[in-house]
Amino acid sequence: MASLSTKERDRRQGQLRADMKRAGLDVLIVYGNSGRLGPRTGNLAYVSNFRPFSGQQAMVFPLEGEPVLLVGVDNQRIEALRTGWAADVRCSPLESVPEQVCGYMKKAIGAGKRIGISSLSIMPVAFYKLLQEQVPAKEWVEAGDLILERRYVQSEEEIALSRRAAGVADKMWEHLCRNAREGMSELDIRMELDRVMIPSGAWDNFNMVGLGNMADGGEAPWGYIIPPTERRVKRGDAVVLEISPRVDGYWNQIVRIFTLGPAAKWLVDAYDVARRARDAALAEMKPGGSMVGMVTAMQKVIEKGGYSLWPYGLVHITGLDLTDYMITPKSTGALKAGMVLTLHPMFSLGKDRQLFMGESYLVTGGGYEPLNRCSDQLVSL
User: Fold this and answer.
1) Phi, psi at residue 248, to the nearest 5°?
2) Residues 318, 252: contact at Cβ < 8 Å?
3) What architecture is the 156-380 domain classified under in CATH?
4) Whole-angstrom Cα distance, residue 213 to residue 170?
5) In which band, very low, low, confident or very high, does the pLDDT at 36 lie, cut at 50, 70 and 90?
6) Kind plus residue range of the DSSP H or E element containing 270
7) CA–CA separation, 346 vs 307, rounded Å?
8) Do 282 and 271 meet the contact criterion of CB atoms below 8 Å apart?
9) Whose CA is closest to 155, among 3, 1, 313?
10) At the N or C end, where does the chain have fewer CB atoms within 10 A?
C-alpha cells in the first residue's frame, strides 16, 4: 500500500506538469538508483512514491499521458506496483534499464521532443550516451531542479512522515542512554539502535559513530564519524552519534554525545558553545529569513567562544534525501514554511578534530517547531 495518498500524487504530478510546460519540456526522464549519490536521488521517489532498493530505475514522465516506470529486476517491479503510484511498471530482465528506456521511448515517444533529465548529476555517463545515440530528441535538458526545488517545502502528508521519523530518532537515543555500557563495541551500539529503529518502521538509516578518549583534550572523533567498527568503549571515552532513521522515505537526524564517566571540562565547555550557537541560529529560523542568516548567527557565537566555524554541514534541508540542500555561508535562498531543517553547529577543535550536535526542526508560519523532543543534554553515564 502506498504511504502517501492519491491526493498527494495528484498535487505533485500536477505541479510537475505545470513546471514542465513552463520550461517547454515534452518529456521528463526521472532517473533513480539505490545509492546516495547526492540530493537528487530522491526525485524518483517524489514523482513515483517508489523508493529504489536495488540497481537502476527510470520513470518516463510525459507532459501528457500516463508515466511509465522501468526497472531492472522483477522484485522491483512487484514492489513498485505494491507501494508506488505508477500503474504501468515494466521489467525486461534480459535488457539493462538504459536499453529498456531507449526501446520504450523510440516506440512510444517519437522523435523531435524536448526531453528533460532528472538528473545528469546522478545518471551514469553511459546511460546518457545511449539515450543520445538511440533517441532522436530535439534537445536534452538538465531538469533535476524542476523536482528538487518542489521537494524543499513539505506538504502536510510529508510533514507527518517527518514527524514519525523524528519520533523514532528520539526513541533510539533514549534507548541507548539506558543501555550504553563500558565494553560494548561500536557495532553493539549500532545493534542497540537497530533494536528500536527496525520495529518502529524505519526503512533505512545513516547511523554513524565517532569514539575517542577525553584525556588531554581528547582524540579525534568529533564530527569525523564513520560506520561502526569493533572498537570498544571504555571509561574516559566520549561517543558522538549521528542518528538518522528514515520512515517511508523521509529522513530525520539528531546528533548527540555521551561519555563514559564524567565529561571533561573542555568537552562540557565546547558542547555549551554548540548549544548556544544552535539557539542563535534558531532565532533566525522563520519564513522569509535568509538561509545564510542562520549560519552567520552560529558563526558569531562559535568565534566568540574561541573556536573556528566548520563551514559545511551546519544546516541542511532534510526530506527524501538526508540532505536535500546544504545551507552554507554561500547560500542565497530564503526560508519557507514547510521546510524541514536539520541544524547541527560544527566547529574545529584543532587539526582533524571537530565537535557538533543538533536535531531537526519544521519551519512554521510563525517561526519553527522542534521535531525532535529528546533531551539535548551532554549525557554522562
Assistant:
1) 50, 40
2) yes
3) Alpha-Beta Complex (3.90)
4) 25
5) low
6) helix 265-282
7) 10
8) no
9) 3
10) N
- Answer yes or no: is pLDDT of 107 > 80: yes
CATH architecture of 6-151: 3-Layer(aba) Sandwich (3.40)
Indicate if 156-380 has the same CATH topology as 6-151: no
d(CA 381, CA 260): 5
Residue-wise pLDDT tens digits, 50-96: 988 888 899 999 999 999 999 999 999 999 999 999 999 999 989 99
Cβ(67)–Cβ(47) below 8 Å: yes
Q: What phi, psi does 326 have (nearest 5°)?
A: -95, 120
Q: In this structure, what DSSP letter does residue 336 have?
A: -
Angle at 276 between CA 312 and CA 334, to 5 degrees: 50
DSSP-assigned states of every residue in 143-161: -HHHHHHHHTS--HHHHHH
User: Which of 185, 198, 325 has the alpha carbon at shortest distance from 314?
Assistant: 325
Q: How far apart are CA 236 and CA 6, in angstroms?
A: 53
Q: What is the pTM of this model?
A: 0.93
Instruction: Answer yes or no: is pLDDT of 312 > 60.
Output: yes
| pLDDT of 348 strictly over 90 | no
